[in-house]
Amino acid sequence: MSIAKNYLYNLILTISDILVPFITIPYITRVLNPDGIGAVSFTNSVIEYFTMFSILGLNLYGPREIASSRNNPEKIRTTFWNIQYAKVFTVITSYTTFLIFFFFFSNEKYHSLYIIQSFIILNNLFDITFLFSGLEDFQKITIRGLLVKIVGASLIFLLIKKPSDYILYALINVLSTLFGTSIMWFYLPKNLKITNFSFEDIKNHLFGSLKLFIPILAIQIYTVLDKTMVGVLSTEAEVSFYTMSQRLVKIILALITSLGPVMMSRISNLVSTDQHEKVEGYISVIFDFVTYASILAIILTVFTMNDFVPFFFGSKFLKVKDLIIYITPIILFISWSNLFGIQLMVPMKKENYLTISVIIGAVTNFTLNLILIPKYQSLGAVIGTVIAEFTVTLVLIILVRKLINLKPLFNEVWKHLLAGLATFSLLFFFTKINISPFINIILKISIGISSYILIEYILKSTTNKMIIQKILGFLKRT
């Protein structure tokens, strides 16, 4: 399937990731208390550590190996099943470790939430998304994702009615995930009949995934550990505020980076066939696109949050608006680090470069959290996250120079920065307008997007020209 079609499917899934929370979060934040949402987020952050160990680096390793074997059906079959066999070992080991934690070290207050959410660990045993990602069959992944979101959202509105339903809220999230995993097995290609396991292949897959697990572990330290540390060093309500700010920014970020999974599989295939010139061409186009989109997204987020947060989250979550504004720089930092780290270094099997960058980021984030969270609570975690993501991106830029020529990538960055600065200055004049929050949000988004595109057009931006041509081409076809 073409990159354009796969990107479209992944974009549809990403948009659903945005639309469904837009529908459910305002309801959840008004029905459940910050403490209840915080308890779910805190226990989920702990479960994520066991989930991470249950999969090692197979969620990145799997698609890469399948993509590299795509021209050999028998190799795909043996690779798929031996990765599944490897997961039997990792999942059982991880869940056994969780049970030890649960019975001897966990807070009895959270026992119900821990048991419910622990099924996410077992879910990894049956998750075969890596196969379809490696085959670049994002249509099936998208259909699965849409079904999961529709079922989950429907159950939330039907069943969540009072503050004490936060445990039921956690159960709905878990069951929706299990439902989505089971669906994918109905799509399993008929030529992938079960094969005998090979100890040698299983060992190779485990060691291969372990190389990717080290950077994943470091990434988790400064993405999941934040919530855990806020819960330990502050309050459940602060966990909730921090989680909501992260969730909204990550939703925006997902829209920008939705090309990532598609390109990782394609670049893995190109690397396996020594087509390095095409790889550099793809990287150049993607870099300019994510820079263009990230700068616009940051500006729109900064100027709409004062109206958006009270309207969207309700009066109990007003603190979230400041947290979101402060955390917006990670939109650009993660867009770049995702491109260099996941879409380039993983296919090129340069996991050691990725590992160096994220370990430095994890150490930075952990240190800053210890210093800042006790004094500034959730804001301290936000500051630590921004500095850590900047550090990771800077290290990756330094290291990626050994793989590709970086100079052409930055040729048009000045155009996006200039367009962003001009758009920022224009929107600043609209901050004093006294109109309804909803109208104000629509007005600022409309003015921001149109002025940004116009200025980019004047500056003859390549990405802006490509986007306009795509839009015009689509309108002509319709």
Describe the secondary structure blueprint for this structure.
Elements: H1 3-31, H2 34-55, H3 58-68, H4 73-104, H5 111-117, H6 119-126, H7 129-134, H8 138-159, H9 166-184, H10 199-221, H11 225-233, H12 236-256, H13 260-272, H14 276-313, H15 320-327, H16 330-345, H17 351-376, H18 378-400, H19 413-428, H20 437-458, H21 462-477
Describe the model.
- The chain is mainly alpha-helical and 478 residues long.
- The protein is 81% helix and 0% strand.
- The chain is built from 21 helices and no strands.
- Helix 2 runs parallel beside helix 6, helix 12 packs across helix 15 (320-327) and helix 12 (236-256) packs parallel to helix 18.
- It is globular.
- 48% of the residues are buried.
Rg value: 22 Å
User: If you average the pLDDT, what whole number results?
Assistant: 84
Describe the main β-sheet briefly. Answer: none
Number of helices: 21
- Helicity range: over 70%
Q: Runs with pLDDT <50, length 5+?
A: none
H and E order: HHHHHHHHHHHHHHHHHHHHH
In percent, how much strand structure appears in the residues? under 5%
General form: globular
First CA to last CA: what distance? Answer: 22 Å
Strand segment tally: 0
The computed structural class is mainly alpha
